[in-house]
Structures are given as structure tokens and as C-alpha cells.
Amino acid sequence: MAATTPVQKTEEEWRAVLSPEQFRIIRQKGTEMRGTGEYNKFFEEGIYNCGGCGAPLYKSATKFDSGCGWPAFYEGFPGAINRTSDPDGRRTEITCAACGGHLGHVFKGEGFKTPTDERHCVNSVSVKFIPGNASTSL
Q1: Which of 50, 53, 96, 121 is catalytic?
Q2: d(CA 59, CA 49)
Q3: Which end of the chain is more exposed for a tag (fewer CB within 10 A), N or C?
């Protein structure tokens, strides 16, 4: 079960700080179209923060090209991401632990040659890239 999130805002407050597309995806659990996201084929060094609240989520070193059409990471910062089974039990949703914002879904056991054999399939709109040294420890 997901923990209570420390960043609490009303829907009106979220609408005031997010673009309509960010609100649709981050707050209403939407999905951007495959292959259209800004960070899909982007591989610069830095940190990916939550697009809603700015909390650090992923190091660029954990990003890989999965070919799925969305940014893919094999792990996030410890405690930064909550996992919740979708109501139908077919997928596991990932959300920002700080604000509850929808990031995408995580898939396990797909055979990618990553340390975790996980693919965090993340909407580009759900994250904001901060360039720089990504040597922060996980």
C-alpha cells in the first residue's frame, strides 16, 4: 500500500501549477502518446525530478533505451517511488512518493539486461530533467 504523500494540494492548486497536459497525466493518471515524449530518446547526464513537485526520482545512469516509446529506467532513488497494482491486476502503477503524481507503470521480468530486470515506463510529462552530475548514490 502506498504511503501518505507529504505534498498535499487541492485539485485547483495543482491546476494552477501544472500545464493542462501535465494535469491530465500526473493528476488524472493519463498517458502521453507513444514516441512523442521529450525524454524518450534523451540520454544526457543529470537527474529526473517529479514534474509535479520536483522531488528527485531517477538518476540518468539508470535510464536505458527499451524501445517501448516512453522513457525507461531500471530503478529509482530509494523511497522516491510508490507502486500500486492497477485494479485489474495486470499492471503496477508507479507514483511519486512525495506528491502521489502518476509517473507510469513498472514491468518486471521482460529480459532487459539491467541490474533489476525492471522497466519503469515513465511519461516524459511526469518528469523534469535537471542537467548535471548524476553521481548521487542510490
Answers
A1: 121
A2: 9
A3: N
